[in-house]
Automatic annotation (TrEMBL):
InterPro entries according to UniProt: Filamin, Filamin/ABP280_repeat-like, Filamin/ABP280_rpt, Ig-like_fold, Ig_E-set
Record-level GO BP terms: actin cytoskeleton organization
Protein name per Swiss-Prot or TrEMBL: Filamin
Molecular function in Gene Ontology: actin filament binding
Per-repeat ranges for Filamin: 3-99, 109-190, 188-231
Entry coiled-coil feature ranges: none
Pfam families: Filamin
Family recorded in the similarity comment: Belongs to the filamin family.
Keywords attached to this entry: Repeat
Length: 231
């Protein structure tokens, strides 16, 4: 928990800081402690400064032994919250407020997979702000183990790796700062390569400049799930 700050001039007005990051578009509530009857509603002021330097003056409401101010951040990044008593910053001001946007998380490589073969995809949070990701892979109500690695500390790009243990539909839940991202859960159909067979005379011999054909039998698969490479 963030420590409360005091000094000789503003010791009766304190703020403990924001312990959790905030999402874009949310209402951020700033609760300031007033430890003396000497303060009045006109003594305390609050400003929220965006990452691009835009300053917003917040309305301040006195409630018993505290003041409350709110603002709605619309930019990703580190906001600064200035808290003033008699036009002076209280100790510790300005305070940090990290803002994120789960809608800016991108997923790459989550297309197709095969039973028993390691599957890897990317979760890119580099434009979405700071914060941890949570990934849960489910099949038939059972959780499948997965590993998460960051591509360089602070890059915001994460590799998720898991190995499908059976054919069928998998649900992949992805959250950022405990908020499920847009599109989650993602549905992934896993095929069993051992059930795929290929047959046809042209697999053994074909004539130059003549159309050659062969058949692929893949039960439950669609054409987009099959890749053919001829060398």
């Amino acid at each position: 928990m963030t420590e409360s700050y005091e000094d000789a001039h503003t010791g009766h007005v304190t703020f403990s800081g924001l312990n959790e990051p905030c999402s874009v578009g949310s209402i951020v509530e700033v609760v300031i402690n007033a430890q003396s009857d000497r303060t009045t509603s006109g003594d305390v002021g609050v400003k929220a400064i965006s990452p691009t330097g835009i300053s917003y003056t917040c309305d301040v409401v006195r409630r018993a032994n505290s003041y409350t101010a709110t603002f709605t951040p619309m930019e990703v990044g580190e906001w600064r919250i200035g808290i003033f008593y008699e036009n002076d910053h209280i100790r510790g001001s300005p305070f940090s407020c990290h803002v994120y946007d789960p809608n800016l998380v991108n997923i790459y490589g989550l297309d197709v997979g095969l039973v028993g073969q390691e599957l890897k995809f990317t979760v890119d949070t580099s434009r979405a702000g700071r914060g941890p990701i949570q990934v849960t892979v489910m099949r038939h109500g059972r959780q499948i183990p997965c590993d998460i690695y960051e591509d360089g500390k602070g890059s915001g790009r994460f590799q998720v790796v898991f190995t499908p243990d059976g054919a069928g539909q998998y649900k992949i839940h992805i959250s950022f700062n405990n908020n499920e991202i847009k599109g989650s859960p993602f549905i992934l159909d896993i095929a069993d390569a051992s059930s795929v067979s290929v047959y046809g005379d042209n697999l053994r011999m074909a004539a130059v400049d003549r159309l050659a054909t062969f058949m692929i039998h893949a039960l439950g698969a669609e054409s987009k799930d099959v890749t053919v490479i001829i060398t």
